[in-house]
Design brief:
Blueprint: H1 3-14, E1 30-36, E2 44-45, E3 50-54, E4 64-70, E5 77-82, E6 92-97, E7 103-107, E8 110-114, E9 125-129, E10 138-139, E11 145-148, E12 156-160, E13 166-171, E14 180-181, E15 184-185, E16 191-192, E17 211-212, E18 219-222, E19 225-230, E20 235-241, E21 247-248, E22 267-270, E23 277-282, E24 288-292, E25 297-301, E26 307-312, E27 330-336, E28 339-344, E29 368-373
Antiparallel strand pairs: 1-29, 2-3, 3-4, 4-5, 6-7, 7-8, 8-9, 10-11, 11-12, 12-13, 14-15, 16-17, 18-19, 19-20, 20-21, 20-22, 23-24, 24-25, 25-26, 27-28, 28-29
Length: 387
């Protein structure tokens, strides 16, 4: 299918109801670009057509390799190392090149940076600390790095100066507020993912597993707006960032949250197709391509906020599960020119459960992979870092 037809289908889809069914109305497909020996999550690119991602260590004392992969002639080369964690195995998430040409990588509660070098892979140095759960990365026009707090589930979004000083700017409302009732912290909702949660024939819970509280995940800039993926709600939040990197934010609407918590009118779009929204990338029109990781799906959100499911793994004819690929928990997409690719972390949840099926994660198999859309995307991506 050529790029013109693909773009036309997207245009028609956005003019009406969102598409999502097993007949594959978009006629899209994904193929594996390359597999990696270690599991991966983040993905970025440079202007020369190289992809970059980071392997996640198997032991607490191991470093985490930074991989460089040419998109047109894929092979894995180690170009840097992330030091082991202080108390747990190295577990990097987001990464992106900064305006200084260095590659910045998030890891647990700190951010590292390095200049990739295949001949002599450097060990990254610490850029900023005291940022628990730091996940996605985006740079603004003043060289500030922005990141969210990931799986800590609090919803904090920080601005980090070029000198590495972190300031909490605002919060995405967490799934539960700060009130305590009968010994339980928070009033609100607990979104649970099945599996690992289980339900009975009446669709009622039979255990307490699978809670998904992540509300500040991937983030990117477009047209002076910082957009943040809310995994638990299946939403994208939007905040205007001013020329001086301050924000024009509507806060203080709900006294049961901290005073810097965004009001609900900052939700740009919320949709069931976006459940499990993780990383995303903008094209030149300001449309977002979103990895809905728990659904093994890629979603298109038009600049007019229309939502279209571009691709979702087909259900197996024998098991009726969607865990056999080609997507295996897609987490971080890139749009290099007209080519869309995504990292796959092979999480053991929802549509990817059990994660031993498919191409990665099983006994003797690679642990991570990058998959790319076979069709040409009509509108190219923005160069990174995106302002």
């Amino acid at each position: 299918m050529n790029g013109k037809c693909f773009a036309l289908l997207l245009s028609l889809a956005l003019s009406g109801a969102a598409f999502a069914d097993d007949n594959d109305p978009m006629h899209a497909s994904f193929s594996t670009l390359i597999t990696t020996p270690l599991s991966i999550e983040g993905l970025t690119n440079d202007s020369q057509g190289n992809l970059y991602t980071t392997g996640r260590a198997l032991a607490a004392t191991d470093t985490c390799p930074v991989y460089r992969i040419p998109i047109d002639n894929p092979s894995v080369t180690i170009v840097g190392l992330i030091p082991p964690g202080a108390t747990a195995a190295c577990n990097p998430s987001g990464l992106q090149f900064g305006p200084d040409g260095q590659l910045y990588v998030t890891q647990t509660d700190r951010i590292y940076r390095l200049v990739p070098d295949a001949a002599n892979p450097p060990t990254a140095t610490v850029f900023a600390t005291g940022i628990p759960g730091t996940n996605g990365i985006a740079f603004d026009w003043n060289g500030n790095l922005w990141t969210g707090d990931g799986t800590t589930n609090v919803g904090r979004v920080w601005r980090i100066s070029p000198q590495g000083v972190a300031t909490e700017v605002f919060r995405i409302p967490p799934m539960t507020n700060d009130v305590s009732v009968n010994g339980s912290v928070g009033v609100g909702r607990d979104v649970r993912t099945v599996p690992p949660a289980t339900v009975n024939a009446a669709r009622n819970a039979t255990n307490a597993l699978g809670s998904q509280g992540l509300v500040a995940n991937g983030l990117q800039f477009f047209n002076h707006r910082l957009v943040i993926a809310d995994t638990a709600r299946g939403a994208l939040w939007r905040v205007r960032v001013n020329e001086d990197s301050s924000v024009s934010a509507h806060t203080g609407c709900d006294s049961t949250f901290t005073a810097n918590t965004l009001c609900m009118d900052h939700i740009a779009v919320q949709h069931p197709l976006l459940e499990g929204a993780d990383g995303f990338v903008f094209d030149e029109n300001g449309s977002a391509w979103v990895d809905a990781n728990e659904r093994n799906a890629v979603i298109f959100v038009g600049h007019d906020k229309g939502v279209v499911e571009v691709f979702r793994n087909p259900a197996s004819a024998t098991t009726k599960l969607r865990n056999e690929g080609p997507l295996e928990t897609p987490t971080s997409p890139i749009l290099f020119g007209h080519k869309l690719c995504t990292a796959n972390s092979d999480g053991n949840r929802r549509d990817n459960f059990p994660n031993t099926a498919g191409e990665i994660g099983g006994p003797g198999q690679p642990k991570g992979k990058i998959a790319c859309l076979d069709q040409r995307v009509n509108v190219p991506g923005l160069p990174l870092p995106v302002h």
